[in-house]
Specification:
This protein is an all-alpha fold. It has 2 domains: 3-36, no CATH class; 43-77, no CATH class. It is 65% helix and 0% strand. It contains 4 helices and no strands. The protein has helices at residues 3-20, 25-36, 49-63, 70-77. The longest helix has 18 residues, at 3-20. It is elongated. The N and C termini lie far apart (50 Å).
Length: 81
């Protein structure tokens, strides 16, 4: 067996070990969905039009310089963080 194949087998075993210890129902449901529907779609195609618009607006704000430094944003929103 080649080294690459051995590494893949090692990764599989580590994933199995991790999955058997999961207690998070959401993670288990997502793994089941992945198993049942293993399509390769980009997350961009999975989000709503509103989410896309919000991302586009944020990118426009960045290009236009309508941004604040992290320290200012953190201070402004610290009560919710």
């Amino acid at each position: 067996m080649r080294t690459k194949d051995l590494n893949v087998e090692k990764e599989k075993l580590e994933i199995i070990k991790w999955v058997t210890g999961l207690n998070d129902n959401t993670a288990i449901e997502r793994l089941k969905m992945l198993r049942e529907k293993p399509k390769k779609t980009d997350w961009w195609d999975e989000i709503t039009d509103e989410e896309r618009a919000a991302i586009d607006k944020g990118l426009e704000d960045i290009k236009a310089g309508r941004v604040k430094p992290h320290r200012e944003a953190k201070k402004l929103y610290e009560k919710w963080l």
